[in-house]
Amino acid sequence: RGLIQTTAYRGSDQHGGQKNKVICIEGNIACGKTTFLEYFSRTSSIEVLPEPISKWRNVRGQNPLALMYQDPVRWGLTLQTYVQLTMMERHLKSLAGPVCMMERSIFSAKYIFVENLYRSGKMPEVDFVILTEWFDWITTNLHLPVDLIVYLQTSPEKCQERQIQRCREEEKVIPLDYLRSLHQLYEDWLVHQSSFKLPAPVLVIPADQDLPEMLRLYEENRDKVLTSSN
Ligand code: DCP
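Above: inputs. Below: predicted complex with 2'-deoxycytidine-5'-triphosphate.
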């Protein structure tokens, strides 16, 4: 415990005692998180940590993301255990720079994806309980601060359109109902704020528009994104 606390503490005190800012970008599958992160990494001097999806598609030659989509009951725990580990790593890394933006968080991994597998009957209770034990231990014993959540709010139909367009092999089996369930969980958590504890204040940006309009909206929200976390 001492070692873990020292590591997290050292990270958060690297900038002359100034607190680091951590901004998490949240939203449904294919809502445009990557575009948002790219835009801010191009136009400001913040550090950006994209979602570790390449690791989820290839860990020592294994593809737990594809396995989970093929058979969620069998492989949901496998993928989500690894997602939880890689997100925890990202949170600890986020403490190394003065302002850091990261794609999703350990919180949405648990409150949205694990929760959805469990509620839809695709994750056995024992798997859910074990993931919950891990999550509770991590969030109780490690310091994983978040200063702002940016929620890119899309309709499930728009996400499906974008997800079909980008044509990621593993995702070809995703039905609209899956995107609808994730959407509902996101709305309950970040908009109605009626399900799980929020780790930080939320800024909602509507994100159904085409790219030029989205870039305009990002620019319009630049100050809110970069300063509301102060
Ligand atoms: N995923 C999952 N469980 C998690 C997190 C993600 O099953 N806890 C899955 C959902 C997607 C893939 O991993 O199939 C990652 O896709 P995202 O939509 O999160 O990332 P993108 O880069 O595609 O997002 P965007 O299109 O918004 O940039």
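Residues 27, 29-34, 51, 53, 65, 68, 83, 109, 113, 171 surround 2'-deoxycytidine-5'-triphosphate (CB under 6 Å).
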